[in-house]
């Protein structure tokens, strides 16, 4: 059959149809070529996807696993400071209160409060005395933002959005940490007086 007798725009239809030669069905060469090209294309696509998945899995498996282990709610069980002479001292009084939350999408919130806090005699936080403002500031440690974990260096990096101490707003704070089962603790940067605060937490059940 000649393609000149086909309607306009259908001249190539014949190449998509098998033909009969010597009582055998023979696929046109054009169709075979297209099939080989499809197989080669999908093979390359599959190899590319597998390589991408393998690279992603190998990039930071330890970091991902360790970050997952820290996710959750932690209750404060201790807040003390190590003095320059190596002795320990209470930092937020006896039985401090607090809560720390790490979310799976990389956000956190830290709240630490002294158990016994000085009330404002006026009952109005805008009319406190100098001593009342000082105690209100020193009896709390609060900040929130985003975080990341380095399981090799054993550090938690806090990217602080806002904090009760204004000087820490929009800063990055690195804390060396230890985790043993349901217990998590980290050390805060050395203070001007040489003491090193330590935060101790227990996973909330």
Low-confidence stretches: 1-17, 51-66
Discrete helix count: 3
State the helical fraction.
10-25%
For this structure, the quaternary state is: single chain
| Sheet of most strands | 8 strands, antiparallel, barrel
Instruction: Based on the coordinates given, report the CATH architecture of the largest domain.
Output: Beta Barrel
- N to C succession of SSEs: EEHHEEEEHEEEEE
How many E-type strands?
11
What does the model show?
The chain has three helices and eleven strands; from the N terminus they run ββααββββαβββββ. The chain has 205 residues and is of the alpha+beta class. It folds into two domains: 3-59, no CATH class; 62-203, Lipocalin, CATH 2.40.128. It has an eight-stranded antiparallel beta barrel with strand order 3-5-6-7-8-9-10-11. It starts with 18 loop residues before the first strand and ends with a strand. Residues 1-17 and 51-66 have low confidence and may be disordered.
Secondary-structure blueprint:
Elements: E1 19-21, E2 24-26, H1 29-59, H2 61-70, E3 72-82, E4 88-90, E5 97-102, E6 107-113, H3 130-138, E7 140-150, E8 155-163, E9 172-180, E10 183-187, E11 196-203
Antiparallel strand pairs: 1-2, 3-4, 3-5, 3-11, 5-6, 6-7, 7-8, 8-9, 9-10, 10-11
